[in-house]
């Protein structure tokens, strides 16, 4: 993917890591393969894309790029629904990785910024995919928790990107009211 971007667009100035995967696998009897799948998408792929985006910026002397990780409220607290504890653990990893990235970027004396955007429940297909194919459970979750819309997260990304060059928005928590 990054080779194609380099060929077509010269490189990456902004990387938005937005992939997220959850399986309803309990810790007491979950499937190892499902856990590995969640780690591959939520942690490893995010880390690979971050590395490749940074290398693209560095190669082209881009010193004002931005890496944004779409995280989750689950990256800050354990939310008790849908047996998503393993998913939650990966989102805690995203929180730690984003802070580690900021520290590494500072050590490299670059002005590339790193931000974690942590939304609450967003009205996407995530919950229905992460549930046990139980439409009543999905409806119950959306009834119990007010959901954000995808455009709300897009607005948060735009806000972060529009910050002045001297402003680092390290973490942005987005919740519905």
TrEMBL record:
Q: InterPro entries in the record, alphabetically?
A: NAD(P)-bd_dom_sf, SDR_fam
Q: What is its EC number?
A: 1.1.1.270, 1.1.1.62
Reactions catalysed: 17beta-estradiol + NADP(+) = estrone + NADPH + H(+); 17beta-estradiol + NAD(+) = estrone + NADH + H(+); a 3beta-hydroxysteroid + NADP(+) = a 3-oxosteroid + NADPH + H(+)
Gene3D superfamilies xrefs? NAD(P)-binding Rossmann-like Domain
Q: Which leading EC class covers this enzyme?
A: oxidoreductase
Q: Which residues cross the membrane?
A: none
- What GO MF terms are annotated? 3-beta-hydroxysteroid 3-dehydrogenase (NADP+) activity; estradiol 17-beta-dehydrogenase [NAD(P)+] activity
Q: Which chain positions lie within coiled-coil regions?
A: none
Keyword Ligase assigned to the entry: answer is: no
| Keyword Transcription regulation assigned | no
Q: In which pathway does it act?
A: Steroid biosynthesis; estrogen biosynthesis
Keyword annotations from UniProtKB, A to Z: Oxidoreductase
Q: Which family does it belong to?
A: Belongs to the short-chain dehydrogenases/reductases (SDR) family.
Functionally, this protein is described as follows: Catalyzes the conversion of the 17-keto group of estrone, 4- and 5-androstenes and 5-alpha-androstanes into their 17-beta-hydroxyl metabolites and the conversion of the 3-keto group of 3-, 3,17- and 3,20- diketosteroids into their 3-hydroxyl metabolites. Exhibits reductive 3-beta-hydroxysteroid dehydrogenase activity toward 5-beta-androstanes, 5-beta-pregnanes, 4-pregnenes and bile acids. May also reduce endogenous and exogenous alpha-dicarbonyl compounds and xenobiotic alicyclic ketones.
Name-wise, this protein is Dehydrogenase/reductase SDR family member 11
